[in-house]
TrEMBL record:
InterPro entries: ATP-dep_DNA_ligase, DNA_ligase_ATP-dep, DNA_ligase_ATP-dep_C, DNA_ligase_ATP-dep_cent, DNA_ligase_ATP-dep_CS, NA-bd_OB-fold. One of its GO terms (cellular component) is nucleus. It comes from the Eukaryota. It is found in: Nucleus. This is DNA ligase 1. Belongs to the ATP-dependent DNA ligase family. The keyword ATP-binding applies. Its main location: nucleus. One of its GO terms (molecular function) is DNA ligase (ATP) activity.
């Protein structure tokens, strides 16, 4: 669909998006950008809800008549100065994008990106995107199998939306048994926690996931201070966990705090021990994209979500998925 008439303001300034060479000439003489136009509050310097953009007139609009201002966010560069770039890696295309274009305050910007190698990196970036009023993330391969494939689905791209965080119908109440030293803005606090469900049969706490998203600065400060008096030298004998680099916490705690957690879904895990043997004889259950909701100071650790309940949630989720497939 050609939407040129709806965005005369973008058309009038698109050539100015190009950076200039030493002689003042545009570096990008011909190009195809993968972009998104968003409604933009220039006074506050922030993105407005998508619904605001839909109120723009679709045609016969002049620059002077435009009530809803837009900012163009560039994700990718597909063609540059006569050369198709789709076979290049995302890292190469992005370098060319930054080299040949320059941001304009409130008019043209580069999509914010973060490089990560594990689920925790994605969780933290998703949390930040939600705070900034974004719908979610696109997770893409950077170097390997990182060509651009137009108009087709690819396993090398994964959409992660904030809506996915409400995937599990019921929240879980989980016990804090370990902590991870914070980095960057979280230096001086615990930046994440190892959580466990309670197995009533063995009276053990079974590790289920790490969580590092959903916390306010006040939460991080409060929990870090509260847990200082509950630090122990190592895991209790009744902690069931796997000594794996992705799981091993920096600090161990007595089971005192209970967090209410929401997750996108539950998955079988060769690492975590929650409900071990209930569904699979060699695997436990873990949470994907867990997010802190609140402290359950009304619950004792033994009243946390138990292993049987975790297994029941997993079964219910799979039944629901089967029903959707049948529809």
């Amino acid at each position: 669909e050609n939407l040129s008439q709806k965005y005369p303001d973008i058309l009038s300034r698109i050539a100015s998006f190009s950076a200039k060479d030493a002689d003042g000439n545009p570096k990008a003489k011909s190009f195809v950008l993968d972009c998104e136009a968003v409604a933009w509050d220039r006074q506050a310097g922030k993105i407005l809800p998508f619904q605001v953009l839909s109120t723009r007139k679709r045609k016969n609009t002049t620059d002077e008549e435009i009530a809803v201002q837009v900012c163009v966010f560039a994700f990718d560069l597909l063609y540059l100065n006569g050369e198709a770039l789709t076979r290049k890696t995302l890292r190469e295309r992005r370098a060319l994008l930054y080299e040949h274009f320059e941001a304009q305050d409130g008019r043209f910007a580069f999509a914010v990106h973060s490089e990560g190698s594990n689920v925790n990196d994605i969780q933290e970036f998703l949390d930040a995107s939600i705070v900034d009023a974004c719908e979610g993330l696109m997770v893409k391969t950077l170097d390997r199998d990182a060509s651009y494939e137009p108009s087709r689905r690819s396993r090398n791209w994964l959409k992660v939306k904030k809506d996915y965080l409400s995937g599990v119908g019921d929240s879980l109440d989980l016990v804090v048994i370990g902590g991870y030293i914070g980095k960057g803005k979280r230096t001086g606090w615990y930046g994440g926690y190892l959580l466990a469900c309670y197995d009533e049969e063995s009276e053990a706490y079974q590790a289920i996931c790490k969580v590092g998203t959903g916390f306010s600065e006040e939460n991080l400060k409060l929990f870090s201070e509260t847990l200082q008096s509950h630090i122990i030298s190592g895991p209790r004998s009744y902690y069931e966990w796997t000594d794996h680099p992705l799981v091993r916490p920096d600090v161990w705690f007595e089971p005192k705090l209970v967090f209410e957690i929401k997750a996108a879904d539950l998955s079988l895990s060769p690492v975590h021990k929650a409900a071990y043997g209930h569904i699979d004889s060699e695997k436990g259950i873990s949470l994907r994209f867990p997010r802190f909701l609140r402290l359950r100071d009304d619950k004792a650790p033994e009243q946390a979500t138990n292993a049987t309940q975790v297994a029941d949630l997993f079964r219910a989720q799979n039944r629901h998925g089967d029903d959707k497939d049948k529809d």
